[in-house]
Amino acid sequence: MSRSKRPIEPAGQAPSIGRREVLRLGAGAAAALTLPSLAFPGAAATEPRQEPRMETRPIPSTGEPLPVIGLGTWQVFDAGTSASERAPLKEVLRTLFDAGGRAIDSSPMYGRAEGVVGDLLRAEPSFPRPFVATKVWTRGRDEGERAMAESERRMGGRLDLLQVHNLLDVETHLPTLRAWKERGRIRHVGITHHARSAFAELERLLASGQVKPIVEQTFPLSEAAKGFALAEAGGVVGKVVLTTRDVVIRI
Fold first, then answer.
1. CATH superfamily of 28-33+54-250
2. Are strands 159-164 and 239-242 parallel, antiparallel or unpaired?
3. 140-152 in b/e burial notation, b at 16+ Cβ within 10 A?
4. What pLDDT score does 81 carry?
5. Model pTM greater than 0.85?
6. Could you state, in order of their start, the residue ranges of all structural domains in the chain?
7. For the segment 62-93, what is each residue's pLDDT rounded down to a tens digit?
8. Farthest-apart Cα atoms in the chain, separation
9. Distance of CA 86 to CAs 37, 109, 118, 120, 219, Å?
């Protein structure tokens, strides 16, 4: 896979926020919180400040553009119901949307995060429509369907992407996910894992042709080549999105 050069920005438009810029911003959460106030090199001090436009990448299966920076909800969104706990999280969502972001990723494994995200989205109708992703993290077909339906309810009744978390009972859950997609209950199927030891299994699933899902895998920047190899194994034309801490493949 080759990386294409970034296009030259048309005159008079604000620069896009790309992966190189994100890597320079520091921690991922801090980057998201500071996006609206970024200053761009070469801008004259007397010029009005231009809001940045977030760079996007197309989802290969649909062509839908997805902003390159998304919001993970592990730990931080595992919060209670008090206003003092919820108000800062509402502002995190607002900052994401104001900066042009859309993707929000969660999991039942993240404690109360799914419910917190769903509550905050329902409570603020002015928020734009997000790209909502979560996961199934259990064993067995019946238990998997029950858990998926509960995640759907907690997050507002509409899921764009449903993923098998850490490949747990993946062969059981993939047929269910495909059926949900065929019925229009979800838009995309995914598989995820956090460990480098799972690369072989991810590659096997992609190469088998039984499903071409969205794949999420985190690993050190020093092993980014493995991510490109993984994408090639699936025969997928996609992009590797870099975060400040890890490389995350979103195919």
1. NADP-dependent oxidoreductase domain (3.20.20.100)
2. unpaired
3. eeeebbebbeebb
4. 95
5. no
6. 28-33+54-250
7. 888 889 888 999 999 999 999 999 999 999 99
8. 62
9. 23, 19, 12, 8, 31
